[in-house]
């Protein structure tokens, strides 16, 4: 079986944009099961010749602020538990917000290795957010732009030891 990579992070950081870039036209399935798996998308990804299974923890659009964190925690922990490595995305333009810090706390006890990813890092708008992210405790983030396809070589190098 292919190694598995989970894409996690709060809503709107660019998880699905990265998923779509990695999976391209090879999207395998849209999961339709109830509960935690309902919003999970999986696909076969290829990055510079590296093949893996990728999981997008998607879709919190129907949730209000009160139910979001609990549901997100369930989904995040389920995806991370089944993955060989997790990509923890934040929005470098928005900077680090309390929900990012909360996710970082959930991940701290996890056995799955975590790679911190600064998305939306095209141009210089993300520099302050990238400095802030050091406080999350996952080291220097890999800087990418999922939308523009930048940083994919660095992402490849960060993934390689884990899959
Ligand atoms: P998700 O909720 O984490 O799955 O986030 P989405 O993939 O749906 O993206 C949320 C928004 O961020 C969309 O408007 C995307 O077009 C935008 N976005 C995603 N990646 C980038 C990026 O690299 N740069 C910029 N500037 N915007 C991005
Ligand atoms: Mg999404």
TrEMBL record:
What positions does the entry give for GTP 1 binding? 9-16, 56-60, 119-122
Q: Which residues form the EngA-type G domain?
A: 3-163
Which superkingdom? Bacteria
What functional role does this protein have?
GTPase that plays an essential role in the late steps of ribosome biogenesis.
Subunit composition and interactions: Associates with the 50S ribosomal subunit.
Family membership, please give it.
Belongs to the TRAFAC class TrmE-Era-EngA-EngB-Septin-like GTPase superfamily. EngA (Der) GTPase family.
**What is the protein name stated in its UniProt record?**
GTPase Der
Q: Which organism is the protein's source?
A: Sphingomonas panacisoli
